[in-house]
Amino acid sequence: MKLQKLLSYIRRAVDDYGMINDGDRIAVGVSGGKDSLALTMALKALQRFYPHRFELAAISVSLGFEGMDFSPVAAFMSDIGVEYRIVNTDIGEIVFDERREKNPCSLCAKMRKGALHDEMERMGFNKAALGHNRDDVTETLLMSLFYEGRIHTFSPVTYLDRKKITSVRPMIYVPEKEITGFARAENLPVVKNTCPADGNTKREDIKNLISELKHNFDHIDEKLLGAIQRSAIDGWQQKE
Fold first, then answer.
1. CA 176 to CA 184: how far, in whole Å?
2. 61-82, pLDDT tens digit by residue?
3. Which among 56, 68, 49, 36 is positioned nearest to 8, based on CA atoms?
4. 61 with 120: CB under 8 angstroms?
5. 86/188 Cα distance (integer angstroms)
6. Domains of the chain by start residue, with CATH
7. What is the largest CA-CA distance in the chain?
8. Half-sphere exposure of 25 (CA within 13 A, CB side)
9. Could you give the CA distance from residue 54 to residue 28 in angstroms, rounded to a whole number?
């Protein structure tokens, strides 16, 4: 996938859900994975021609796991002209060593989000851009259905009143496989995830299930996303 195609996906999502307003100060939450790196690159390109002017920065929350080196990401951000900060935390130690969580992902995500929002407050940024892709949207729907018994997935735009911060997800229309191809073509400096739970989660089980369903049901990804958009799930009604 070329940058132009990635931009077309993102521009459509941004316009459909009113994700960017004039004067926004947007911080991309950069995990070091392909999604957040591709999103940062695309938003930097969008910044040059989008009708609403916005500032852009990137923030990585380091969980304290050994072997996760963000220096290549820092060099990449410097190359494309995006301000970059790393927030060092001991979240990994708290979740795995102190709390010994059986389901660590939920607590880890909450603590990561808290650290990201705290840094955004210090920087004076009002919007967090997150790298959730189309696969993440549909996987979350099925996880909610199968594990919680409810029809739900995250919204394209979420406002956190306590922090006065809005989270936006400009990649909700982008298939994960296309991001993988883009990251490879652009040689993005993806940081290897050394989390002990990586690849051994409920999300991974759902991802494998959807992969199996694709053999019997054509375009299941598009159909699931379409069902979400036509549903009453909060936040999925497009802007007029």
1. 12
2. 988 777 788 999 999 999 999 9
3. 49
4. no
5. 18
6. 3-230 (3.40.50.620)
7. 50
8. 13
9. 13
